Amino acid sequence: MTIPREIIEDIISRNDIVDLISSYVNLKRAGSNFNGLCPFHSEKTPSFTVFPASQSFYCFGCGAGGDAITFIMKSENLEYIPALEFLAARAGIRLSFDNDAGKTASERKKVLDMNLAAAKYFRACLFDSNIGKSGMDYLVRERKLSEAVIKHFGLGFAPDGFRGLTEHMKSLGYKDDELVRAFLCGKSQKTGKAYDYFRNRIMFPIIDTSGNVIAFGGRVMDDSKPKYLNSSDTAAFKKSKNLFALNFARRHCSEQLILCEGYMDVIALHAAGFENAVATLGTALTAEQSRIMAKYTKKVIISYDSDGAGQKAADRATEMFSNIGLEAKILKIEGAKDPDEFIKKFGAEEFRRLLSKSRTGFEFKSETILSKYDISKPADKVKAAEEFCEYISDIWSEVERDVYISSVAQTLRISAEGLKNDVEKARRKKINIFRKKESSEAKMNAMGIKDRINSYTAINRRAVAAEETIIGLLLIYEEYRVGVIKGKYEISGEDFISEFNRRVFEKTIECQKNESFSMSLLGQFFTPDEMGRIQSMEVKRKMLTENGSNVLKECIEALKKEKSLAVASENNDSINEIQKLIESKRTVKDKSTNE
Fold this sequence. Notes:
Elements: H1 5-13, H2 17-22, E1 28-30, E2 33-36, E3 48-51, E4 56-59, E5 65-66, H3 68-75, H4 80-91, H5 99-126, H6 133-142, H7 147-152, E6 156-158, H8 164-171, H9 176-181, E7 185-187, E8 194-196, E9 201-207, E10 213-219, E11 228-230, H10 246-249, E12 257-260, H11 263-271, E13 277-279, H12 287-296, E14 299-303, H13 308-323, E15 327-330, H14 339-346, H15 348-356, E16 359-360, H16 361-372, H17 378-392, H18 398-412, H19 416-447, H20 461-476, H21 478-486, H22 499-515, H23 519-522, H24 528-542, H25 549-594
Parallel strand pairs: 12-13, 12-14, 14-15
Antiparallel strand pairs: 1-2, 2-3, 3-4, 4-5, 6-9, 7-8, 9-10, 10-11, 15-16
Helix pairs in contact: 3-4, 11-14, 14-15, 16-17, 17-18, 17-19, 20-21, 20-22, 20-24, 20-25, 21-22
């Protein structure tokens, strides 16, 4: 095996899964198990279950599942080896892997090493009085940042040239292809040579909560476009699953986080004493980012730019936070376009007062709707009421809906009962659409049409069902695994029709042969999403009462029959193709003879 079983088992045994997941999810006991809202998709009714007996978890809503290692891989956006290291550090275990395991982690580690070296290079350039003068002038004179703040965030400067960073990194032993994969360099289509991706820009290192430099953002110092360049996804970085300055903010945000649009807003807020500010990384807020914030805080104040685009983005973000049960308020910045400019003009204390006046999503939406219509006119009043109905109908809480209906009715001077009836009509319509969509998706899932893990489900459901039953039984019972190895149950990887299930079967038996089986060992060979599917096979079999050897034998027999039919079908297709080819040649020959 790549990683010794005893190391993995020691890490798992010292990281109780209930204790681990409780630090991310609010769990409640349900019999011998624990339930909670799934951290991997938005839901209002708990479908996420933790099984203490098997030290595993499974979400019946989105299909996420696995053990402690899989959970950390998904939660912290880590590969298998870094997830093991994370859990080992949590348990106070010192890790040492063999060469094969080192290779598995080498790509991510190399990217992190390159990023650190690049961050040091950018910082040295910024503090070089000749190379970095324009960058330092911009930060100190124009943006009013102190040297202490510049050093605190590790800011740097990328010189205006095509080979500065490239040559520096190559002098450290890195190759062009490695620099391109780390998104530090581009590659010329004409010459094939690497060139500096970031040029003549202020550099913002993006640092994760473990202190690793995982990516960069680069900002121009004038009005040229694009204003920002950001690293693309690499082996060490997923843009949609990280937040700028969370490494600092996580220690100051238990009550509330301030969500900004840009790096400079965050830095200005931290410099002014608001160390609970973070920003997305050049993209709109993602569901993953909103769930990350929910791990650290109770409330988010959305501090986006005061222009139309910023306020529209704030509206969308409020809805996203509402979907995961996180309280959200929107900051209205008046007299400035963003927090950075506001603090420069009015000071930190005024911004603190502004924070206390932040509005709820409903207050923000009300102001937006009322600014569009003259409600003294009947036609405009009707349009405003329709927009309010549309907004309120999306709210899950009945009490919250009643409060907003009462408020809107009073503002528009219309019947609360009539407004409530319209809201309920809108809700019923949306619920019907949702149910139709859900039903359609359920049918497609049952047929395997949307199966991203095992695409063969749509081709032969009976074969895949037999395969999953066999695997589920093997995962639960050691005697079945041993029986397969000893030949008591005559089945091999060749009997499987779907490639994914064949891999699961072969790795399960391989683990059993080598060192005795553990679900955690499979995580070395499968992605977190694939581990969720494997976990579902075990969970679904455990929910059934009949799991005897007769079930295993029947499924083996059924699978072999399906395999035989599939092979026969392929042979028939081949024969048919040969016959068609012969016929086509005869036709050509007859035609030439007649001519």
